[in-house]
Specification:
The chain has helices spanning 2-5, 55-63, 85-93, 103-111, 119-128, 131-136, 192-205, 210-217, 231-234, 236-253, 264-273, 283-288, 307-337, and strands at residues 78-79, 114-115, 163-165, 176-180, 182-186, 351-355, 372-382, 386-389, 400-402, 406-408, 429-431, 434-436. Strands 9-8-7-6-10 form a five-stranded antiparallel β-sheet. Strands 3-4-5 form a three-stranded antiparallel β-sheet. Helices cover 32% and strands 11% of the residues. The chain has four domains: 47-136, Endonuclease III, domain 1, CATH 1.10.340; 147-274, Nucleotidyltransferase, domain 5, CATH 3.30.420.10; 275-293 and 307-339, no CATH class; 351-436, no CATH class. Keywords: Aspartyl protease, DNA integration, DNA recombination, DNA-binding, DNA-directed DNA polymerase, Hydrolase, Magnesium, Metal-binding, Nucleotidyltransferase, Protease, RNA-directed DNA polymerase, Transferase.
Length: 438
């Protein structure tokens, strides 16, 4: 290339920089010295929303003088001393930009910048004890508590399943139905004492002697008022009868709903004449030993059976029903337990969160409401799968709950050596139309 340029004559002249507007990068003067920058703040303090660097970083540097990083600390991570680890987890987990992530996501966010030997274990414990996560996040585990069916009665009428159908249209001043083998229309929802009086009056009218009625009502009654989502599964008779009765009543008076009380007797007769899947027999057959006719009988009138024959047939019928009930109980129990897990064991004094699924919270949107409230202290276990909680005095609801509605909680801050928990901000519960706070 040097030989090529020898054929040209060059003349080098000076050109002022003011005229050399379109100079290229090669004509720029090279500066080898580094430009020094002063530490003077250019942006006014009034325009600064927050520091770019966390205050925690300054504290970590100060604490490292007494708690230096161990040799195994990665060079691209900041070692967090023991006294500041909980604060670092709180800043990362509770930040609005992270939104209370789970264990894996929280540990990943922390490990991007920080390190200490027990980071994973401490993160698991911190997230498990986070109050916001416990009350706002749903549980994805199988429901706790295996199905424990009620014991099978040893004879007819030893146990009675009752239920109420309420808020029906007024029919001859009746608005409710009391179902207890019979269908009894009521003008209002009765109290517990009025329910016992109704049972005594109906069984006396139905032909049961006074000894049977008094033995039924004066027995040692064990009433369970615990909140249990398995109530329908454990004792499906009452719910099944109510559902069947609703279907029958609807078929009788779907057009004119104000005369449903006129068809109560027919609905009761039809319900007791239909065979039940659990026994394979009708209620009439289980109790009376024979099936009353459903249609007018045109044949020869049958003679009443002898007393001994009737007793023998009744005993055989009940034995067959008992066998069918045992098979049905095993079938339902095995099917239900496939989707459940064994009950966790809680001890008195332990703290638990209570599911808000069955609580009426005064909040505008149910989907955005907390999934759990509390925590509450366990007072005692009510065998086999229920627990009594220490609810506030203004919670006018039963304090007994099924184990599937509970999940363990850590001891609230400041109550390790106290008898009562500190106030936890939970939504109000509607009790008798009034707000009840913890």
């Amino acid at each position: 290339w040097a030989l090529f340029f020898t054929q040209f004559e060059f003349k080098v002249t000076y050109r002022p920089g003011s005229k050399n507007i379109k100079a290229d990068a090669l004509s720029h003067q090279f500066e080898s010295s580094q430009t020094s920058y002063s530490g003077e703040q250019i942006i006014p303090s009034t325009l600064i929303l927050g520091p770019v660097q966390w205050d925690i970083m300054t504290e970590i540097t100060e604490y490292q003088n007494t708690d230096p990083p161990p040799p195994e600390c990665p060079p691209d991570r900041t070692y967090v001393p023991q006294a500041l680890r909980n604060r670092v987890m709180q800043l990362v987990h509770n930040s609005p930009s992270t939104g209370h992530p789970g264990i894996t996501a929280t540990a990943h966010l922390i490990s991007n910048r920080f390190w200490w030997p027990t980071l994973q274990r401490d993160t698991i414990e911190f997230v498990h004890n986070c109050s916001t996560c416990n009350i706002t996040k749903s549980s994805h585990q199988r429901p706790a508590g295996l199905l424990l069916p009620l014991p099978i009665p040893q004879r007819p009428w030893s146990h009675i399943a009752i239920d109420f159908v309420t808020d029906l249209p007024s029919s001859r001043n009746f608005t409710n139905i009391f179902t207890a083998c019979r269908l009894i229309p009521l003008t209002k929802l009765p109290t517990a004492f009025e329910t016992a009086e109704i049972l005594m009056e109906q069984y006396r009218i139905g032909g049961h002697n006074s000894h049977h009625v008094s033995g039924l009502l004066s027995a040692n009654i064990s009433v369970s008022i615990s909140v249990s989502p398995q109530a329908t599964t454990q004792n499906p008779t009452a719910r099944s009868n109510t559902s069947t009765m609703n279907s029958l009543a609807s078929s009788y008076c779907h057009a004119n709903q104000s005369d449903w009380s006129r068809y109560i007797l027919w609905a009761e007769y039809a319900q007791n004449s239909l065979s039940k899947p659990a026994t394979g027999l009708t209620p009439f057959q289980c109790v009376l030993g024979f099936q009353p006719p459903l249609f007018p009988w045109t044949g020869e009138p049958s003679q009443l059976p002898a007393v001994n024959d009737w007793l023998q047939r009744s005993e055989e019928t009940w034995n067959a029903a008992h066998v069918h009930l045992q098979q049905a109980v095993r079938r339902v129990r095995d099917q239900a337990n496939r989707l459940r897990r064994p009950s966790p064991t809680y001890t008195p004094g332990q703290w638990v969160w209570l599911s808000s699924r069955d609580l009426r919270l005064r909040l505008p949107c149910r989907k955005l409401s907390p999934r759990y409230v509390g925590p509450f202290k366990i007072l005692r276990q009510i065998p086999p799968v229920s627990y009594s909680l220490a609810l506030p005095a203004n919670y006018l609801i039963s304090p007994t709950f099924h184990v599937s509605l509970l999940k363990p909680a850590g001891v609230p801050r400041g109550v390790e050596d106290q008898d009562e928990a500190e106030d936890v901000s939970t939504p109000p519960v509607i009790v008798d139309g009034e707000e009840a706070y913890q």
